[in-house]
Structure formats: C-alpha cells, structure tokens
Amino acid sequence: MDRPNYITPAGFAALRAEYEQLFATERPQLVETISWAAGNGDRSENGDYIYGRKRLREIDRRLGWLAKRMKAAKVVDPARQEDRSRAWFGATVTIADEDDVERSLTLVGDDEADARAGRIGWNAPLARALRGAAVGDLRRVALPAGEKEYEVIAVAYLST
Question: Residue 82 has what DSSP assignment?
Fold first, then answer.
C-alpha cells in the first residue's frame, strides 16, 4: 500500500465490530454446524456441510481483509483538525455546481465511504479536488460524466 489508509474513529470502530462479530460469533457457530453436518454421513450431497464450508471460506477471507485494513489504518479524528477553514480529512463540505445545485459531502476514509449517505472516500476524484479548499474556492474535477466545476459554499467539522 503506497498511501496511508486514513479512517475516522467511528469507521475504525465499525471495522473492528465487524471483525469481532465474525470471529467471535458467526465463525464458531458455523464451525459447529459444519461439524454436526460432517457427522451425518455422505458429505457430497449434504447441503449444510457444502454451504457451511463455502461460507466459512468467505468469512475467513473477510477476516483476513479486515485484519489487513485495520493494521494499515491511520485513525484521524476530524475534531482535532488544526486548520478548520479548509477541507481536510473529516470535513463536511457544501458545494454548488454550475446549476447552483448544492450538496454536502463528508470526506472520510475509503473503507467507510457511502455515497448515498454523502460520505465520499478520501481518494475519490471529487475528494481529491476538494482537499485544501476554502469557502469561495472553485474546484474543477474530471468525473465519468465529464468535467465539472464546483464552488465551495461551506466547510465544517462535525463530531463523529
């Protein structure tokens, strides 16, 4: 990984909670089901055994991915941002396009991005264009639908 994996404290807590839920709850229950199914005889047509093994592989892959992401994570608390006049990690930025359509976006870690909720990943094209922007700045960004220009209307740091 060549870039730091920035993440908010809430995002890191969500990764950890998912890891702990899979590791401490779901995986042990699945192992118990697989053991029970294996004891029932023929495994070639045993749906519980076949599905259980498949699901166990999925859980183990997800656990590995989560462990890797948590190890590489650099937790940054937006509330401790020194320069609150500019858009940095954790900022909620209100922007307006050429048609004066406003929208608010929060710059978060790539692992916690959710476009529907207005949270965009730190390395997304729009987030990269907004980095360091202050109120009144114009930023041009190349999007899949073409190049657009946005004006920064407000920059705020909300508690996470």
Answer: S
